[in-house]
Design brief:
Elements lengths: L2 E7 L6 H13 L5 E7 L6 H5 L6 E5 L5 H11 L4 E4 L11 H8 L5 E6 L6 H17 L12 E4 L16 H7 L4 E6 L13 H20 L3 H29 L9 H30 L8 E6 L1
Parallel strand pairs: 1-2, 1-4, 2-3, 5-7
Antiparallel strand pairs: 3-8, 4-6, 5-6
Helix pairs in contact: 5-7, 8-9
Length: about 300
Amino acid sequence: MKYSIIIPVFNEEKSVFELHNRLKKVMDSFNEAYEIIFIDDGSSDKTYETVLKLSPSKIIKFRKNFGQTAALDAGIKEAKGDLIISLDGDLQNPPEEIPKLLSKLKEGYDVVSGWRWPRHDSLSKKITSRVANVLRKFFINDGIHDSGCTLKVYKKECFNQLELHSEQHRFIPGILKWQGFKITEIKVAHAARAHGESKYGYERVLRSIIDMISIWWWRKHSQRPLHLFGGGGFAMFFSGALLFFILFILRLFYNISLSDKIWPIVAIFLMLAGIQLFVSGLLAEILIRNYFSNNRRPYSIEKIEER
């Protein structure tokens, strides 16, 4: 299998038929084996029934709505192609742009990300996207302009050790860049939404910011959290012990009364807090190792069908 096209869909019954027809024309032109994988993310309309009529296609049906990140993760794990192509199911990512991304990939890159230009979104969405881009540059610095564009091409090996959670699909290029993969972007067309409603809301912006901070922390300290907690704990314990020693000298040799002073309590607090931080680091180390030893998925698949 040369290509695997991953398409998360949620209430897109009016778009998937046209998308499949256009996508099929593009992929047939390559004269190489490909598969089209739709992930029905708990749609409440007739998206699933519509996709069942399309051939060729593979349909992964979720039991309920788990979000785009979970849908992409499920599709990637099911994919058999050497190259993975992802795009939205709302026709805002024109499938006719795929050859452009594949051509760029041949220049020696592992990931080619689409850069929607010009954007056909509402003003509020453009503003929130601009703010998110500034924050993403600060925390992740993936070197691309439009991480929110789902239209991307990856080599399959990019996902050998990558687990996706929450809203992390926007930050895949940044995560892969940290792992040493070669990332680039190219401008692609962006169409206005023709059917259905946008699933992009302010609550997703908030979740994305939280995930951004989480990914930043994960990159810095995931391998050895004890370095973070243990270092802070040692510093607090040492500060408390030093203060306690100074107070001991003042009381023993200079006969200074400490009964009405808060400093002995501060010293003891610092020492106890330091011990607690260090123990927290040890527990985090155990949890991290347990995380890497278990392959759990944060979503539930009802069934997989192929046409």
